[in-house]
Amino acid sequence: MKFNNLDHKLFWPAISFTFLALGLAVLFPEQSGAAANAGMRWVTNDIGWFIQLAGFSCLMFLLYLALSRFGNIKLGTESDTPEFSYASYAFMIFSAGVGAALIFWAVGEPMYYMQSPPMFAEKGTPEAAQWLITFTLFHWGPTGWAIFCMPAVPFAYYLHKMKHRNLRLSQLVKTVIGEKHANGIVGYIIDIVAIFGTLGAFSTSMGLAVDLIGSGVENLTGIKNGLTMQVGIIVLFIAFYALVMFAGMKKGVSKLANACVYAAFALGIVILVSGPTAFIFAYFFDSVGVMFNNYIRMSFWTDPVQKSGFPQAWTMYYWAWYFAYLVMMGVFLARISKGRTIKQLVLTTITFGSAGCAFFIAIFGSYSVYNEISGTLPVLQWMSESGVSSAIIQTIKSLPFGAVILVIFLVVEFFLMSTTMTSAAMAVSMMTTKELDHDADPDVSVRMIWAVGIGAVSMAAFFMGGSIDTIKSMCVVVGLPMIVLYFILAVCLMKWIRRDHPELFTTTTIAPAAKETTKATEQSVTELRQVEV
Question: Which domains does the chain have, with CATH numbers?
Fold first, then answer.
């Protein structure tokens, strides 16, 4: 393989900086952990309100773009057509954003909330029960998907509309920070921190997936879910990723995403039918009503008086974690959005992403809640004794034909995480490629070296043992400067649109049909004058 197209000046410092952070966490666990946790507490406690405001602002800004006159702007030339069918497009968006973490937290979050209810509710009361999957739906709902989608619009505009073949983040924000800073040390720091945020955020998701799959394998085979198994699972992810990448975007990534989503939804239907169907439907719709009735309150709840710590530990952490995914989600969604309009990109991401998450939360979350409150299964006891992963596995195995369903569940989890890994590797590969090809794809060699790099980072995180919490805290801290970059990207996008579509900023914009009528009238008058002459 040749790596001539790899931006070595960016790749090696970024990967080295990541391993340096991991190394410091291993060599100085107490000091690095204390520093990272102090940073996380400062971000969530002192300026957590800013994170919540930024998340809600992303949602409002995107809805404004999609539903206004800007929504019909095509991300590409007038002759560009979408590369993927709408179903494949939506499935790739969903599978890239959730991975295995969704089902992990679909069961885990309601159980944690049952022990420490939000919104001042008392533990064990009906009032507390109404919030159990409500907040889970909220954390995986429109605001979270808006954070994912927001950078994708300027990335897609820059790639497909402006036809640039280098996606370094520093180059996108050049319109605001200036060429001198973009090509200097400021731009360099922006690119490295953005890649580090992606690697750190992804390693957190990978940690959840590997532990969950390992727990399932242990339950089925008796082989201990130790370091050897976890490293082996990561190696399998890398090997499978290689097969997908060599197959290409259309034959590999899109078909994998389609298969993942179909299999995952089929699994959900099986659990829905096998479980307490009536309770799942009733509890889900009741929770949706509670969420919509309190959406603004939940979006800005900081709990400054009672100081329960709930919004800091959950909502603010989630939003900061999502912000750290700036490069991964922004670049990947941009890559697959050629020929789509801004409206299609925004509404598909927010609506399909939220609805897909709601489907799994409704089934897995409601099923676990029902079993716990009815006394059918000791889900909380399993969590306290063996952890969330083990509790999920035992809950799945309690279903009719549990062993068979568990095998299917583990396969689906593996494929879902493989799709997320593909998205992460594709995104950082595009960012560290000197010049993308005509399909906006990086070289296979660049993608493969990043797959190995991402796998190595994930393995290193497992070797750290308990220090993985340090990396999670660092991701939250990194998410803060990402918010500033979000704002800059939004300003850049509006400047580009104003430059390319000045007619959209006039006070009286003529409708397209009126324009065609006007042109036809002018042409008729011209022809009439020629006849008269």
Answer: 8-500 (1.20.1740)
